[in-house]
């Protein structure tokens, strides 16, 4: 097992990492519930909220490689605390906002920067560096299961908070919850960078090699599709169901079911990723998503069909993350894991930007979400195809392939 750079056991790192992801992504997952009340209170169209969430994901993605590079050098814990401060500040600005500009600044810029310091690449990079190669895929799956549990718990909590405190009070209460990430980050303080393994490269060589590597490029394109689908669904499905005459509670329960079923989904993705080719599993995952989305979007919508969609989609929701990060670790080793994970995550967030923004634009222009659903299905089929040719070489073999 790799020597821990934190002074804590791999199990402690895994537990704290899972809790950090549960809070950070659970809070983030609830933002779709605020679309209608904030838009009504501000007198805005849905495009304003959609743009803020889209910008959030773009800022999150653009800053992620740099946050990852710093985490690889100075340790994940310090960067997580910095991200927490920005996250809390952004949510407080959202809660106290008095206009479109302030809301976009808080929700889009500050929360986006905060998420780059408290989510996948940094946290999973720390887990990867503390876990042996044979257990790595499973550990990543367990960590993402923690994120899924947070999403399941946070949705009913956020909906109840809106009912009791109003949307502004609920956002302020969730900002206080995010502060809990600070003590959880302490076991992830790493003393220096990750230990260098025999076949691993320095940062400059790793980024050059990765950007020229066809498998890395295809992996990033597939993750772009994941980002589009996840943010479009999380942001717009509550409003989509409301348009169909269903209650806000139904939308909240659908997102909660996604989080609940994501727990076994990510666990088994991590488990199976240690047994079979991870790119092949990714192809099947995206193909399944296409079928689930098509059935939900273009068949009659009811409360039952909405719950079935939430449960089915949850099985494949964040299952891409342990498989994608596990493939990166196989290709390039763990020394630059947070940085390279951040580069691939940038592609994810470019897709997320389009998913959040385009959903609002198409709705405002066409009066329905049909066009956005069609785009999500087509992209899923493309992602299923482009993951098939990816090969899982070791870091040394990846250098030869890219040369």
Rg on CA atoms, Å: 20 Å
Full CATH superfamily name:
MFS general substrate transporter like domains
Strand content: under 5%
From the 3D coordinates, which CATH architecture would you assign?
Up-down Bundle
CATH class annotation: Mainly Alpha
Main beta-sheet annotation: none
Q: In sequence order, what are the helices and strands, one letter per element?
A: HHHHHHHHHHHHHHHHH
Could you give the distance between the termini? Answer: 30 Å
Number of strands: 0
**Apparent shape:** globular
Taking pLDDT < 50 over at least 5 consecutive residues as the criterion, the unreliable ranges are 193-199, 395-403
Percent in helix: over 70%
Q: What integer is the average pLDDT?
A: 83
**CATH topology descriptor:** Growth Hormone, Chain: A
Chain oligomer state: single chain
